[in-house]
Specification:
The structure holds 2 protein chains of 2 kinds.
Chain A: E1 4-5, E2 11-14, E3 19-25, E4 30-38, E5 45-50, E6 54-58, E7 61-66, E8 71-76, E9 85-93, E10 99-101, E11 105-110
Parallel strand pairs in A: 2-11
Antiparallel strand pairs in A: 1-3, 3-8, 4-5, 4-9, 6-7, 7-8, 9-10, 9-11
Chain B: E1 4-7, E2 10-13, E3 19-25, E4 31-37, E5 43-49, E6 56-57, E7 68-72, E8 75-80, E9 89-96, E10 102-104, E11 108-112
Parallel strand pairs in B: 2-11
Antiparallel strand pairs in B: 1-3, 3-8, 4-5, 4-9, 5-6, 7-8, 9-10, 9-11
């Protein structure tokens, strides 16, 4: 069974710190990787996607992908209380449009 | 990006009844998906709504319980049939372009009493 795993948290970080969120996946055929943010009671919204090994930066967010280790992470620099949410990792596999979501990590940024 | 309108946004239903959720997209899309998000859980794919053919259901989900329509490239419905309290969940419509990002509707929060 294809799986995406995340630590459920909560992960608590002080305001201004770097929050590091991790995700592992079981299917070596996974090709596209996404990070979504979900506020309580809201639908998920895309933060970043990454396809290639290495780092991808967008503002305060950096996605890191290591296909050999089947590991993808999201770093949030200068964390703000407004970043407090659940962060969902999702992957898709070549030949399919299906997204497999992790269980999400709840992030709390303490003011 | 795609703008997805989903309704109703929430409903409280009696057990044994059915609820139909509508999803309207502002552009033509090939793939539409229906997800369920149970309390405190992640998103689980129910089915892929295919235009012009029957929906493709994931393991654990069946057409009799979750019939889906896809009459055109901008619209789909999901019906939750013969509801029980276990069906209380958020139901989300989604569209995607495969390797590009998935976009979600606002979700339907269903409570079955």
């Amino acid at each position: 069974q294809k799986e995406v795993e995340q630590n459920s948290g909560p992960l608590s970080v002080p305001e201004g710190a770097i929050a590091s969120l991790n995700c592992t996946y079981s299917d070596r055929g996974s090709q596209s990787f996404f990070w979504y943010r979900q506020y309580s009671g809201k639908s998920p919204e895309l933060i970043m996607f990454i396809y290639s090994n290495g780092d991808k930066e967008d503002g305060r967010f950096t996605a890191q992908l290591n296909k050999a280790s089947q590991y993808v992470s999201l770093l949030i620099r200068d964390s703000q209380p407004s970043d407090s949410a659940t962060y969902l990792c999702a992957v898709t596999t070549s030949g399919t449009y299906k997204y497999i979501f992790g269980t999400g990590t709840r992030l709390k940024v303490l003011a | 990006s795609a703008v997805i309108s989903q309704k109703p946004s929430r409903d409280i239903c009696q057990r044994g009844t059915s609820l139909t959720i509508q999803c309207q997209v502002d552009s033509q899309v090939t793939m539409m998906f229906w997800y369920r998000q149970q309390p405190g859980q992640s998103l689980t794919l129910i089915a892929t709504a295919n235009q012009g053919s029957e929906a493709t259901y994931e393991s654990g989900f069946v057409i009799d319980k979750f019939p889906i329509s896809r009459p055109n490239l901008t619209f789909s419905t999901l019906t939750v049939s013969n509801m029980s309290p276990e069906d209380s969940s958020i139901y989300l419509c989604s569209v995607s372009g495969g390797s590009t990002e998935a976009f979600f509707g606002q979700g339907t929060r269903l409570t079955v009493v």
